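Protein in question kept in full:
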Amino acid sequence: MLRRDCSARARYSRGVRGEFFYRPEMLSYDFGAGHPLNPERLRRAIALAEAEGIQVSVPPPATYDDLLRIHTRDYLEAVKRAGEGVPSPEHGLGYGDDPLFSDMHGASLWYVGGSAAAARAVCDGSPLAISLSGGLHHAMPERASGFCIYNDLAVAISLLRERFSRVAYIDIDVHHGDGVQWIFYDEPTVLTISIHESGRSLFPGTGFVGELGAEKTSLNIPVNAGTTGDVWLEAFRAIVPTAVRRFGAEAIVLQMGTDTHALDPIAHVNLAAQEWLEAVQEVRGLDLPTVACGGGGYNLRTVPRMWIAAALTLLDRDVPEGIPADVQSLLEVSAYLDADLPTPRRRGETAAEDAVRQLKESVEWLSVG
C-alpha cells in the first residue's frame, strides 16, 4: 500500500471528511465517436469509486451567473447556438478539437456544476471536495479550446475567492493550464502553477518560464518530451510546496490530468501512476482546503485508476495494491500502481533543472510579495 506520514497534518484526522460530486448527466459531455475525450473514462472512474466505498453527492447544474463569472454573454449564446448545429469559428466552436454536438451548452452545465458545487462545499467548511468531470483548463472567456467549452476551474477559483483571500491553482496535466493562467494572469490574489510538457512540443504552445504575470503569480514548470517521472517529481517538489506556502494560499484548486502517464496516446512525458500520485500526496500535505477536479488523460486503462487513487490519497486513505475484483474486468487492470517504472531514468533532467533554477527567484519574491 502507498502510505503517508500524517504527523504534520494536525488539522485533519485520518480519513479526511470530503465530498465527491457526480451525476450521470455529466456523461453527456461527449464530442462523439473517435474523439479522445471519451466519457467512458469518467464512467469507469465512478464505478471504481463506488467499489471503494466513496460516497457520491449529486450536484446541481451550473447557473448562468456561475458561467458569467468567467465567460462573456456573447460566448454563452454562441455555445447555445453551437448545440443547435450552428458553428462559430470566432469562438472556436465546431472546428478542430471542439466539434459540435447536440445541446453542447446544457451538457457543459453539468461538469461546471460539479466543480462549482465542490467550490461551494469548501467555502462552507468542507476540507475537500472532488469533481472528476471537471478540470477543463483550456477554455477562454470568449473561446473554446482543447476539448474545453467552459472553464470550470476558473469558476471554482472565482467562487473560492468569496471566502478565501488567496487561492493557489495547481495543474499536473501534461498540457499547460493556459486558460486558467490567462484568466488570472494579472490577479495578485490567485497563484497559478502548471507543470507540463513544453509548449515547444505540445499543445497549447504556451507555459514558458517567462510567463510570470504582473505580480509574478504565474509559475510554469515546462519539461521536455520524454521526461521521466523521477525528474518530473523532483521539479514539482522543488517549486510547488514552497511557492504555495510563501504565497500564503488559504485554499487550493487542483487539476488532476493523468496524461503525463507513459501510456497516454497524445503526449510524450513518461510517468508511472505512482510518481504522478506522489504529486497529489504533496498537495495533500499542504493541509489546505482543496477543490480537486479531473482533466486530461486518454488511456482508459490509466485514467480511472489514477483518478481514484488520487481521490483516496486526498481522503487520506491508503491506496490498495489491488483494484476490487468486481470492477477489474471493466477497468481492464487489476492494480492501481504500475509494476515497472519507465526507463531509462533521469530523462529530461537538464531542461527541468534549468526551469527550476529560473523559477526559484520568482518563488523567493512571493515571500515578500
Q: What stands out?
A: The chain is about 35% helix and 10% strand. The CA atoms of residues 94 and 100 lie 5 Å apart.
